[in-house]
Amino acid sequence: MKGGISNLMKQAQKIQSNFQKAQEELAHLEITGEAGGGMVKIVMTGRHDVRRVEIDPELMKEDKEMLEDLIAAAVNDAVRKVERTSQDKLANMAGGLGLPEGFKLPF
After folding, report:
1. Does a structural domain hold residue 63?
2. For residue 79, what are the contacts with CB-CB under 8 A and spacing of at least 6?
3. Which residues of 3-31 are buried (b: 16+ CB within 10 A; e: fewer)?
4. Has residue 104 been placed in a domain?
5. pLDDT tens, 15-37?
6. How many angstroms separate the CA atoms of 19 and 28, rounded?
7. What gap in Å lies between CA 85 and CA 82, rounded to an integer?
8. What is the CA 52 to chain-centroid distance, rounded?
9. Residue 47: enclosing H or E segment and its boundaries?
10. How many independent structural domains does the chain possess?
11. For the residues 61-89, what does the mean pLDDT come to?
12. Which residues contact 48 (CB under 8 A, 6 or more apart)?
């Protein structure tokens, strides 16, 4: 029994270390969200920090509301992509743990 608890603790420490590494990798990852067929692009990190906003000069001739809508859509697209990438990375990390389907990390 004692060896089982020791092995369990070692496995938990390894999981924690892997999780921290995955979080660091995601923080430095840059993902691009787009709207308007690529006329508006938002580059966002895995921590949801916006790094760059690119707007096609042709949009500057359009009305303000349309530009605002496209910026909001591009940000939302970037957020969804960051979330999807984060979930995929953490799911791959947890794949070898034998966790039940739908079990979410972090605990």
Report:
1. yes
2. 33, 44, 48
3. eeeeeeeeeeeebeeebeebeeebeeeeb
4. no
5. 888 888 888 888 889 999 999 99
6. 15
7. 5
8. 16
9. none
10. 1
11. 92
12. 79, 82
Tokens of 30: 């840059």
Q: Is the peptide bond before 106 cis (omega within 30 degrees of 0)?
A: yes
- Single out the residue of 25, 29, 26, 32 nearest to residue 76, CA to CA: 32
3-class DSSP state of 38: coil
Predicted local distance difference test score (pLDDT) of residue 80: 96
Closest to 104 in 3D by CA, of 94, 14, 23? 94
Tokens of 23: 């979080």
Q: Which of 67, 17, 10, 75 is nearest to 41 (CA)?
A: 75
Contact 77, 42 (CB under 8 A): yes
38, part of any domain = yes
Domain limits for position 91: 26-97
